[in-house]
Amino acid sequence: MGIFDFFKKKNIEKESSQHNEGPFISKEKLDQLVASSLNILCDDVSSLENVEKYLRDQGYNENQVGIIAEKANEMYIKYFAHKRPKNNPYDKIKIYNEYIVNFIGLQLRGDYAPVAAYENENGGVQGFLYLVTDDSYTISAQEVIDKMEDRFENELKDGRIKSYIILYHSQFENNNNHKLALKEEDLKAVSILYHFKDSDKAKIGLPYVFENDEINYKGFSDFSQEQNNEIMNTQLVEGHDYFKDREEVKAPESENEIGIRMKKSNTGTLANTWGGVFGHERFQNSQISDYLIQLMALNKMDSPDEKEGLSFYQTSFEEITFKTILSEDFNTIYPEVNTDFVLNFETKEINEWENAADLEAVVAGAGRDTFGLWFFATDYAENRNVYAAKKDLNVKISGIAFVLDIHNDDTLSDGAKLGKDFTGYFPSKDLPNHACFDFIGLLEDFKETELLDDKSVKGFMLKLRLITNAEQADFFTIDVFVNKENMRFNDLTKGMKLTGALQLQGKIAE
């Protein structure tokens, strides 16, 4: 996607809504709202989320909701939590003990994805999970929980199952707050949403704390010590597949009228691209993101090029142009390496980035009717209709190196030897969906270059041969930018063999 998620309009609207004034709250009204919220918390099957929903439905903004809910929760913990009559659900939930232990095991192995289990009509218990097989498309933990809940509520209503549980990681600290944990610092407990036939839906939590390299589980406060021990001492059946019921998360795809495969991705990011431009360490540990945000803001003061509701701006340096795109729904900025290298290209697939409002994409196909090629399209926002309507294009291709080293060893892992003049590029195993490649290339030429007004970003423009063709010297020799900080050596020499990783980018040639 574009440089940051919060460029999306929905996030900007959410952030700004927190500063809206909302209805005025007098002291008397505040006390009434706290009392009403407290009543909700004291409901045996209610939680903090129910309080917040109630307050939002009354028209209060996020800041007011947070203050009122916090006051009510503080009073609940102080005066009522220890007096609350416990409706111990252990006798029902214990049929899921193996799945609770299994979920704890997943956490210990670093897997924090929600899972579920359900009880069949015959009393058998089966696990369920969503399976992501394509890293380019996934669904959020909250979407997983919502989809699971919808499915099992319908099946419970229709009599196809007798009960179900959904296990996820939450912010629960014995305080009724079963909100999904979205950040590492929010990980406080395993929460279990459960619903049994002829009973109310409810939640319980298993708090845990991180201590050194261990996770210590504190036990379910709703259960006795003996019951907690029974859960933790549950033995899993070795080799048993606890999650035979699985649903694969598939990327939406179709074929358009001219035979181009249209596929969606929602995990695209340009973080590595900007790391290639500014240097990975500097991009991670400096205020570069603030600079890019300020640059986007300054662009708004200029007169843009406009097309189909989009505003386009450019900030040009010697060898790279920073392109800004602004719209009502999504804003982004990305670098484009200047080049004159053009080749004929046949489009076979367009992988649109759904999380970038379909304004960014990786285009895949064949270059010069011979070799596979895919690239991040720096002009996709303005030319998406052209890409979808025309297979045969002339495109400019360039690249940004993420890491650069000297190639010294022509012996492959299986002992085979590469030819002396061998050059080539291979799809990246680490970033396969971002037009990223590992390569062995021949350096035909280079020159130093600098970026930003203060010239603080220093690098080289490389003329890099990626395919050697005896009949055509520039068969696939492209311009590649490399930041000096991303080089594992100091001195470049014409004719040297280089290796590393890069991202290919392209645009339709005018």
Describe what this molecule looks like in 3D:
The chain is 26% helix and 34% strand. It has twelve helices and 22 strands. The strands form three sheets. Strands 8, 9, 14, 15, 16, 17, 18, 19, 20, 21 and 22 form an eleven-stranded mixed β-sheet that branches. A seven-stranded mixed β-sheet has the order 6-5-4-3-1-2-7, sandwiched between helices. By secondary structure, the protein is of the alpha+beta class. Helix 2 packs across helix 4 and helix 3 packs antiparallel against helix 4. The radius of gyration is 28 Å and the shape is globular.
Question: Which features does this protein show?
Answer:
single chain; 510 residues; alpha+beta; 7-stranded mixed beta sheet; 12 helices; 22 strands; globular; disordered N terminus
Summarize the structure.
With 510 residues, the chain is of the alpha+beta class. It has helices at residues 9-17, 27-42, 48-57, 62-80, 90-93, 97-108, 141-157, 225-232, 271-278, 280-285, 288-299, 380-389, and strands at 115-120, 125-132, 161-170, 189-196, 202-211, 214-217, 245-249, 253-255, 261-265, 305-307, 310-316, 320-326, 331-337, 342-353, 361-367, 371-377, 392-406, 424-427, 436-451, 457-467, 476-483, 497-508.
Strand composition percent: 25-35%
Determine the mean pLDDT.
Answer: 89
Q: The biggest beta sheet, please?
A: 11 strands, mixed
Helix content: 25-40%
- Content-based structural category: alpha+beta
Care to count the β-strands? 22
Query: Helical element count?
Result: 12
